[in-house]
Write a structure and sequence with these properties.
Blueprint (H helix, E strand, L loop, with lengths): L1 H26 L3 E7 L6 H20 L8 E7 L4 H13 L5 E3 L4 H14 L3 E3 L14 E3 L4 H14 L4 E7 L2 H13 L6 E8 L7 H8 L5 E5 L3 H12 L6 E3 L6 H7 L7 E5 L14 H15 L5 H20 L3 H9 L4 E2 L4 E2 L14 E7 L2 E4 L2
Parallel strand pairs: 1-2, 1-3, 3-4, 4-5, 6-7, 6-8, 8-9
Antiparallel strand pairs: 10-13, 11-12, 13-14
Helix pairs in contact: 2-11, 3-4, 5-6, 11-12
């Protein structure tokens, strides 16, 4: 009877404590952060894990008492993968929702379209696209938490040289992501002693790239590098397999999702690409200082959503956590948040370690990429 009485008291205490936190949070103005993500449409594999991640963090933070006693309110809008809609939603977040910072979009084209809006409004903007043009040259109010195509290309070429490949063919999609990747594939090649023997392009809605791959096959190329994301990434992979090309296929870091494995099936066997450590977490040593952060994020996400964690969610995780760190330190003043982020150093997240500066609004290096190969329908750490 005494034990039951103590349990009842404990239950009441927990309820009162939770109610106290809830009441306290309700009395203070929320810290409002906006997010523009590709939740539906052809790029939903980017936006849905990011949306889940932001909502998970919001819930966790508020359950623990908020930030400086203020509840965190994350307003998420769906761009449907349309740059024009992303622009409209950014304006909505700024003018109607009065957010103090914006996270997203995730596609490079949409992120680049939104930048003039956030720059004019003088609002901290952490984009989630990979194009170097998002942060190079630096824009005062814009940062990102995604490895740039420059870093991805550098990591691929460094790996190629280590395995004796010196001549490549490139095949890129004609859009913001692909055009930026192509620029870097051409510009970075000489630094690693790589010769580009073929330079092929395709449209974002093309359904067959056999002709372009055949052209590459006729050259001295010892490897193929494809720069795209989404359905066309699967098309190129399947065409490469159908042609039984004897040279390896390297994909961009956009291949680091389970959906890509599902889209390519057996055709994806053997492809190689740069990726964050998150997708091969169990293969990295326990001594890696990033492993604890990665494991906490993965285990929490997968327990809550009953699906595999995605590196795209990891980009959103770091963006919101960085904004939260700024909110805790300097409050909601937009200029103070911007200054805080620009001076952030050695901040370790899911994607890597960030050190921003006035001349570097990406903050990452290629060293936080690992090289991964698809083996037996899963990812194998190579280097």
């Amino acid at each position: 009877m005494k034990k039951r009485h103590l349990l009842s008291i404990g239950f009441v205490f927990v309820c009162v404590f939770a109610l106290t936190i809830s009441t306290s949070l309700a009395e203070k103005e929320p810290y409002r952060v906006g997010a523009i993500l590709e939740v539906t449409g052809g790029l939903s594999f980017l936006g849905q894990p990011a949306k889940n991640t932001l909502e998970m963090i919001e819930e966790e933070v508020n359950r623990a008492g908020g930030i400086n006693g203020h509840p965190l309110k994350v307003t998420i809008y769906d761009t449907e993968g349309k740059p024009t809609r992303a622009v409209t939603l950014a304006q909505k977040l700024i003018k109607r929702d009065k957010v103090c910072a914006i996270v997203g979009p995730m596609s490079s084209g949409s992120a680049l379209a939104v930048i003039p809006i956030t720059q004019k409004a003088k609002i901290p903007h952490i984009a989630l696209g990979a194009s170097r043009k998002i942060v190079e040259p630096p824009k005062k109010w814009v940062f990102n938490t995604v490895q740039t195509d420059t870093n991805a290309v550098s990591r691929i070429y460094a790996y190629m040289k280590s395995v004796g490949i010196g001549k490549v063919g490139i095949i890129t999609v004609s859009n913001g992501f692909g055009d930026s990747g192509r620029e870097q594939l051409l510009a970075v090649a000489p630094r690693y002693g790589i010769e580009v023997k073929a330079d092929e392009k395709f449209g974002a809605k093309d359904s067959d790239m056999t002709a372009q791959l055949t052209s590459i096959q006729r050259t001295e190329a010892e490897g193929v590098v494809c720069w795209t994301v989404g359905p066309t990434q699967a098309v190129v992979t399947k065409n490469w397999k159908q042609l039984a090309m004897k040279i390896p296929l390297y994909q961009s870091h956009g291949a680091a999702s389970k959906q890509f494995l599902q889209m390519t099936g057996r055709a994806g066997e053997g492809i190689i690409f740069p990726a964050p450590k998150l997708i091969v977490l169990d293969q990295i040593p326990d001594s890696d200082p990033q492993k604890r952060i990665l494991k906490k994020y993965r285990d929490t996400y997968e327990a809550k959503f009953k699906e595999d964690v995605s590196k795209f969610g990891g980009n959103a995780h770091d963006a919101l956590r960085i904004v939260m760190s700024a909110l805790k330190a300097v409050g909601t003043d937009r200029a103070n948040i911007r200054d805080y982020v620009e001076n952030l150093k050695d901040w370790l997240g899911v994607v890597g370690k960030y050190s921003y500066s006035p001349s570097n609004h990406n903050g990452l290096t290629k060293d936080y990429f690992v090289m991964v190969q698809v083996v037996n329908g899963d990812w194998k750490l190579l280097q």
